[in-house]
Amino acid sequence: MKNTSDIHYLNYLEEFITENRKETFLNILKTRTKHFTVAIEDIFQLHNTSAVMRTCEVFGVQELNVIEEKYGKRIDKEIALGAQKWVDVNRYATATECIDNLKAKGYRIIATTPHENSCMLDEFDITQPAAIFFGTEKNGLSEEVMQKADGFLKIPMVGFTESLNISSSAAIVIQNITNRLRKSDINWKLTDDEILDKRIDWSRKSIKDIDFITQKYLEQE
């Protein structure tokens, strides 16, 4: 039986996309990472969720985790500007579910907060995989996340204002840690299997009538 997750399926799909698009996928995937992942908790304003997704996409963080304990969500496509096609969004009903899942994958849980006696951004240890948690500007992260965190991170600020909007905070943190990561000798890139999976996924999202195309592939002898 034919497999829709192997190299043969990818080769078939790539017959339906341009050489330039194939090359673009390969070049972008060279910069993608799961060494860091981002989690946002109960963000009421949709444009903030979408803006964080765009930030992840722009700086090469492949996965975004969204905790929806209080509010139902939908991605604001106008703000995300297509980022939802290229970033993997994992949704969780509770903070416990999200934290347990990420810890099982080997991530340290890092809570961003201006109030803890915590690590300054420039001093943050990038060598270990980490899930960076962001909360709302008004309420911050929940007590559960704060108690279960393995560490705390804050952005150095010198003005009267104590906190930044989540989208601004996420952009500053993600840009800093991914830039430092790419300048390091840490093994931060996607594995060959992860790259194959994303090449198939992105190719599928680029092809009109993909279900019909896939059915034709499966019917081939």
UniProtKB/TrEMBL annotation:
<keyword id="KW-0949">S-adenosyl-L-methionine</keyword>
<keyword id="KW-0820">tRNA-binding</keyword>
<comment type="similarity">
    <text>Belongs to the class IV-like SAM-binding methyltransferase superfamily. RNA methyltransferase TrmH family.</text>
</comment>
<keyword id="KW-0489">Methyltransferase</keyword>
<comment type="function">
    <text>Catalyzes the 2'-O methylation of guanosine at position 18 in tRNA.</text>
</comment>
<keyword id="KW-0694">RNA-binding</keyword>
<dbReference type="GO" id="GO:0032259">
    <property type="term" value="P:methylation"/>
</dbReference>
<dbReference type="InterPro" id="IPR001537">
    <property type="entry name" value="SpoU_MeTrfase"/>
</dbReference>
<dbReference type="GO" id="GO:0008168">
    <property type="term" value="F:methyltransferase activity"/>
</dbReference>
<keyword id="KW-0819">tRNA processing</keyword>
<protein>
    <recommendedName>
        <fullName>tRNA (guanosine(18)-2'-O)-methyltransferase</fullName>
        <ecNumber>2.1.1.34</ecNumber>
    </recommendedName>
</protein>
<dbReference type="Pfam" id="PF00588">
    <property type="entry name" value="SpoU_methylase"/>
</dbReference>
<feature type="binding site">
    <location>
        <position position="164"/>
    </location>
    <ligand>
        <name>S-adenosyl-L-methionine</name>
    </ligand>
</feature>
<feature type="domain" description="tRNA/rRNA methyltransferase SpoU type">
    <location>
        <begin position="36"/>
        <end position="174"/>
    </location>
</feature>
<keyword id="KW-0808">Transferase</keyword>
<dbReference type="InterPro" id="IPR033671">
    <property type="entry name" value="TrmH"/>
</dbReference>
<feature type="binding site">
    <location>
        <position position="112"/>
    </location>
    <ligand>
        <name>S-adenosyl-L-methionine</name>
    </ligand>
</feature>
<feature type="binding site">
    <location>
        <position position="155"/>
    </location>
    <ligand>
        <name>S-adenosyl-L-methionine</name>
    </ligand>
</feature>
<dbReference type="InterPro" id="IPR029026">
    <property type="entry name" value="tRNA_m1G_MTases_N"/>
</dbReference>
<dbReference type="InterPro" id="IPR029028">
    <property type="entry name" value="Alpha/beta_knot_MTases"/>
</dbReference>
